[in-house]
Amino acid sequence: MKVSPLIEQQHDIPKASARGREIVDARVIICSPGRNFVTVKITTHDGIYGIGDATLNGRELAVAAYLNDHLLPNLIGRDAGRIEDIWQFAYRGAYWRRGSVKMSAIAAIDVALWDIKAKMANMPLYDLLGGASRDKVLVYGHANGNTIEETVEEVGRYIDMGYSAIRAQTGVPGLKASYGVSKDKLFYEPADAELPSETVWNTHDYLTHIPKLFEKLRQDYGDGVRLLHDGHHRMTPREAAQLGKSLEPYNLFWLEDVTPAEDQDAFRLIRQHTTTPLAVGEIFSSIWDCKDLIENQLIDYIRATIVHAGGITHVRRIADLAALYQIRTGFHGATDLSPVTMGAALHFDLWVPNFGIQEYMRHTPETDAVFPHAYTFDQGYLHPGDTPGHGVDIDEALAEKFPYKPMQLPVTRLTDGTMWNW
Ligand code: GCO
Ligand code: MG
Predict the structure, then answer these.
(1) Measured between alpha carbons, how far is 181 from 171 in angstroms, rounded to an integer?
(2) Residues with catalytic roles
């Protein structure tokens, strides 16, 4: 790695307190074991390395370029222990703030540095964060089917696997493809084509169909199982309020992403009309995306996650703000967040006082082989393991066998052809 000329010229860059902690290498590894992942690996003079995830589904190379061209060259020679200062340098120092591409790049560096620090301390990351607040991390799995009957059957499969919290998505009659319904039941990957595939959406039909699914689920499985549902940004605030209200009899754990959240104030309308718990934030990149939602108690769960919202350093601030308002975490954990994010998130989940739930979509065996990890699943809970650091590694030789494949997320249009929110 080239040393940035800037570093040689400047005199006020914090130097490593001890030579051993100096960053000597920082690079990006792109691979596609089942899907694309962008990983950052940072190594110190002592040979301790840490890894971080920078995957942004369908926009992987943009983040990789930002890292390679603009962030990583600045790291060489810095003290790997100065996580906060490096975060501030990357965030403030860029002048251009926030945004998913930049915040995912910052997150990868941040997580790699927390991994290094925990390894230097010879502690599992959760211990370094403040220690475990619970014994295990409640997760929810994804059940989906083309019809209500198929989805109900899938929920049964998840209950049999030990899950006590399950997200249920179902096809809508008359629509060829619905969000959250996949061919492969255990591994869901929405990015399915080099150029976005087009799907069709009809909110009217969806709103009348979904309550029937949850009615049947409660009939068949009783009140014990925690049920979740993702609206994937498709509704207007009024439609979202209607759905929330119609699902109240089925006592959902949460209803997710009911409407796009650029306008945080829009959630007031939804909140006024329904007590169904609301979760939002998987596409948020900073605390400023959810400040009003949190301070006005317009949501119940915040889904902003480590990889897309600036790493542990920034998500910790979001979680602390949320805690003041009794809002709990519910981190995004789809397959496009690599096992590195899952590992880091689980350490965070074990520590964070206001933990709610963790999404757990299983990765394919190829992904798991490239990213050996210490976390384990048992009866609906995950545990991050106790190895020093975040407990996830990358097998670089194996990663090389899975080169990058261009893939993008689908788009969606209303039945009359109007572009809508996928
Ligand atoms: C979820 C999400 C995902 C996203 C995916 C996009 O709740 O898990 O909505 O399924 O669609 O992460 O890349
Ligand atoms: Mg979602």
Answers:
(1) 6
(2) 179, 232
